[in-house]
């Protein structure tokens, strides 16, 4: 699966726009991504290791419902040819 | 819309005219915050509990109507700070209510709806959202919190601060910090405008909090974004109302001034300037109402809605420009207490920095455009 990062996330991934990961589920893909870029982990994931709700995920152009990456959600299968876009807009600080 | 205008005119405008507006210039001059008593009539009318469910002592009102109410408060009340504080105190109660915890509801929410306790939002640290310095660590049965939150709206009256702090996983957690907790210091923050908003700095030095004060255990960052998304629109509502009041009072004043043997409104340059002011007001009103309607339909991104953010940006830009127009048109009078347009202008300018600075919104919205464009290109490539 190819992961495409944008906006404020890029600086935590050494400004790498596209990252290839080998994964069978969305969670596995995110895990590989944050292993490769450890600084991305606390930005992308909350204390329980779930993708923060403030990030929007698009799998092959279709938005992944926030409930699908919330606590307790079933694993979302992904394939090698899939592309995951991660969009974020975080304000304040 | 007219019903809301008439309701505020009947129920609140007389109070503003006699008890708030006369003291606005003095509070601005001395930097004195609005007193708790100024919110008593709004409390009696149920506005502090407007957004709360009926079962919690609220009115069960919706956010769109509340926004329209704030717009009319901005029209009748000559102090922009008033509506900003009203919306902050009302909205904070909803955050605590959302926990559903009976103890917190009894201790905070019900008194907040009655105007007996006030709460505010303590998030800002003048850093990136991912780099907040305030820290929390577990200590046996409770927590220890340290750090400085540099700006809260309405902190002067706040009994409780909704405080976002980083835990050992660099996640954000949300705690209720009470003003009287040992180790808490609340200080006023002087500013150039918006001076009666009771802006404060919150310092937390070894503040011990029990488990019951933990409001959000994980992903407080997203929680804060959700609050800011609503807040962004509420702060612009009174600006639109004030913009209308400025257009009307400016036109009325100009009609009394004669230059070159003619009343000023007879000069085409003045007509054009007033026309631009009306355009700015109508632009702000249109985008605000469009964004508020998204609250009614629920068809919006609850964490960062581009239309809501663009509305905040547009209202603030037009309000500042309109304030400048008013000062240009009225000369020294508009720079005085007699026609306090410069005070309103300083109030409008608070929107440049507040609830996500204008330049940050430009960046976020620009990133949104770029990301959406990349998504479209990806989909087009997949189709080919």
Which structural class do the helices and strands of chain B define? alpha+beta
Structural class of chain A: alpha+beta
Count of alpha and pi helical runs of chain B: 12
Described by strand count, sense and barrel closure, the largest sheet of chain B is: 4 strands, mixed
Task: Estimate the global geometry of chain A from the Cα principal axes.
Answer: globular
Query: Strand-and-helix sequence of chain A, N→C?
Result: EEHHEEE
Helix content estimate of chain B: 40-55%
Radius of gyration of chain B: 22 Å
Gap between N and C termini of chain B, in Å? 49 Å
Specify Rg of chain A, calculated over alpha carbons.
Answer: 12 Å
Largest sheet of chain A: 5 strands, mixed
Q: How many strand units of chain A? A: 5
**Judging from the principal axes of the Cα atoms, what is the shape of chain B?**
globular
General description of the model:
The complex is a heterodimer of chains A (93) and B (384). With 93 residues, chain A is an alpha+beta fold. Chain A has one domain: Ubiquitin-like (UB roll), CATH 3.10.20.30. Chain A has two helices and five strands; from the N terminus they run E-E-H-H-E-E-E. Chain A has helices spanning 26-36, 41-44; strands at 2-5, 18-20, 55-59, 62-63, 83-88. In chain A, a hairpin with a 2-residue loop joins strand 3 and strand 4 (62-63). The radius of gyration of chain A is 12 Å and the shape is globular. The model of chain A has no long low-confidence stretch (mean pLDDT 88). Chain B has 384 residues and is an alpha+beta fold. In chain B, strand 2 and strand 3 (142-152) form a beta hairpin. The longest helix of chain B is centred in the C-terminal third of the chain and has 30 residues, at 268-297.
